[in-house]
Fold:
Amino acid sequence: MPTKTSVDIEEARRGIYIDFEGTAVDPPSFLGATWVDDDGQHFVQYVLEEALWPAALAKEKCRESKWEDLKEIKELSEREKRLIFAWSTHEAVDLEKYSPNGEWFSNNVINAIPIAKKWRKEFYPSIVFKKNPKQPMLGKNRLDRYLRLIKYDIPSILGPGNSAQRIRYVRKMLDKKEGNYSKLTPTAKGKWTKALNHNWHDCNGMRELLIQIAQMSTR
Structure:
């Protein structure tokens, strides 16, 4: 995996930002990806878990996808010379494990945390993040903590730590309804919407963070 501790404004603005959502014991359920070009901002959610495909069909940004479909991200990166950023090494590890293009992703997906840590130490030296004993799996360098430093607002209901239970719930309810999304309760549909919206903020927030880091680092 490439190691990078700084980013310039062109790299940040043109970057492809990706984020997996899922449960701890299963392969990732879906991958969000966002980037900006002359046509505006693009956002795609590749729903990889087949049990969730009926829910994917109900949402405009979602696509029923297989792991090989993620080659679109690889091809975009190569064709337009865009860097790919993720928060932590999790995305690169899972892409290497499950994607037919895994080796390429492992060699090209950049962990944004070292970039953010270096920036925080330089511009906010008095702020030290510690693990939350109530949420040890989230680690201390959570994206939402860095987003607060740039005043990027995320509704509290879309904060970290809830996606896995929401995905499990929707999966269970779809199984009970034999895959018919229209028969799900408002509660189940709401959980799916919240999981997707959380993923959007992870992708878009990471982009806004790296852009601000690049801007501040050049002053």
In short: The chain has a mean pLDDT of 94. The CA atoms of residues 86 and 123 lie 22 Å apart. The chain has one domain: 9-217. The longest strand covers residues 30-37.
